[in-house]
Input
Amino acid sequence: MSRLAGKVAVVTGASPNIGGALARGFAEEDAHVVCTDVDEASAAKCAASVEEVGGQALAIVGDVTDPEHATEVVAAAEERWGHVDVLVNNAVWFNQKGLMTMPLEDYRRQLDIILGGAFLFTRAVAASMISTGTAGSIINVLSTAAWQGQPGNIGYSTGKSGLVNFTRSAAMELAEHGIRVNGLTPTATQPEDPDVIARMQAMSGAPSPWPMDFTGQFPMRRLPTPRDYVPAAVLLASDESAMITGTNITVDGGATAKYWPWTPHA
Output
C-alpha cells in the first residue's frame, strides 16, 4: 500500500518502542522519515528500520528542548526532500516519581521534554508547512495517563494531560492553513524490541507503593504492542483524515472505557 507516498514525516523520540514502530509503519506506506532522538543509537536504529522496508531515512541526534535542534531537523528534511508533511511528537522521559518524591528539577525537565519539545517542534514544522503551502498533519502521542489519575507518575501524567489541550489549541490556530493537529492515545504497551525489554527489566527495582496490574485490569486479552498503534497513526498522517483535527484517537483496548470496579477475566 502507498497511503503516504511522497510524504515526509518527522518522528521525535524515535526509540525502538512506539516512535520507532510508527516510523517504520510510515515507511511501509512509502513515506520518507526523519528519525530524531537524544540517543544516537536509537536514532540510527530507527533509520535502519525505515530503510529495511525500502524507505528513505535521516537519523538526527538532538534534544527536543533545544530550539536549534528543531530548526536543524526541519532544515535537513527540507534540504533532502523539499518539505515536511507529518510530525509525530513522541519524545518523552520516563521518570516515574510521585508528588512527594520527585525533585523539582526532574519535574521541570520532564514537562520540558513532553510539552516544551512538542511546542518547539510543532512551531518549527508548522512554519515550514505554511511556507511551502503544505496541508500537513501533526500527531501528539498522548497516554491513558493523560486521562486518568495515576499515582507515582506525576510529571508524566501532567505532561501528557497538558498535551491534550495543546493539541486542541494548536489545531485551532493552524486550521486556517489546512494543518491538522490531533492526539493519539496509547496505553501500557508490551514492547517487541529485545533492547527495550531488557531496559525495562533493568529499571524494575524495589516494589512500588502503588502496584499496577496492567494485564489483569486490561479488558482485551493482551496488551497492545507498538505495531498496534501504526494503523491509527497512518490514518491521521494520511489525506484520509482531511477533516479530522483537534481531537484524539484512542488505541487502548478499552482501558479508559472500563468501569473501575470491574476486574476483567476474573
Notes: The first helix runs from residue 18 to 28. The chain has a mean pLDDT of 95.
